[in-house]
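User: Is it possible to get a 3D structure for a protein together with its bound compound? The compound here is nicotinamide-adenine-dinucleotide. I've pasted both below.
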Amino acid sequence: MSLQDKVAVITGGGRNIGAGISHLFSQNGAKLAIFDLDLGRATAQAEALREDGAEAIGIAGSVTRTPDIQNMVERVVNEWGHIDILVNCAAISDRQGILDLPDETWREVLEVTLTGPFLCSKYVAQQMVKQGTGGAIVNFSSTSAYGGGNRRIAYNAAKGGIISLTQSMAAQLAPHGIRVNAIAPGPTGDQVGGAILASDRGAHNLLNQHTMPEDQARVVLFLVSDESRHIIGQTIRVDAGGGVM
Ligand SMILES: NC(=O)c1ccc[n+]([C@@H]2O[C@H](COP(=O)([O-])OP(=O)(O)OC[C@H]3O[C@@H](n4cnc5c(N)ncnc54)[C@H](O)[C@@H]3O)[C@@H](O)[C@H]2O)c1
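Assistant: Yes, that's possible. Here is the predicted structure of the complex:
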């Protein structure tokens, strides 16, 4: 699936799933902007992509701060003239239930994990509308959006919100030729935040294999390519059947 001459922004692209997506996109001809809170990760990932022969830049900033996002859009447009693809990968998670979670943590998780994709999509979509050549946006939900459970609450709620956000964005941006979808990964690579490494995570799915970032990346590539042009406003579970066990 060719992304030749397409310019893609990957938020949270400095490690794990976002890094996997940027590798696959670059192998398919895309130019990559890695937008990450962590400057070291953003620049290291861009450097790794350039070493593989791709065009890539790393940009530090937060998906929660409008000036950072506007600066990112301006830098990418200055570099390559346009933005065609946005992948909203950045997220953080909580680790407590409703009885214990500090109010501030709830707000922080919602701000990064739900408001962040809204803000990045808003400013990138404004740029895409100005360009007049359409585009593709992929949001990240999670199987945590569906399951409940007692290990976290703000993240689960934010990921549920992503499913609704994706539907509204899809409807509002389709008239501009911008196609919006989401994926809902099961456990993939390292845990969000990196506290538990891939090698220490079990494989609770029908393949009995832990899902890796490249498994998510292949689906994201499909969703931003013309191969999926009749898929709009959907959230696709990529969990190796974990949800039907
Ligand atoms: N890893 C999993 O098992 C898993 C499962 C389901 C869904 N997901 C989703 O997939 C996406 C990627 O997950 P991951 O495991 O690669 O995450 P990760 O924690 O490994 O990486 C996230 C990246 O986002 C960056 N980031 C954090 N806050 C930011 C902010 N405010 N602004 C910009 N960048 C910020 C971090 O610096 C980091 O590089 C997330 O949306 C996550 O919720 C992951």
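The chain has a mean pLDDT of 97. Residues 11-12, 14-18, 36-38, 41, 62-64, 89-92, 112, 116, 140, 142, 185, 187-194 surround nicotinamide-adenine-dinucleotide (CB under 6 Å).
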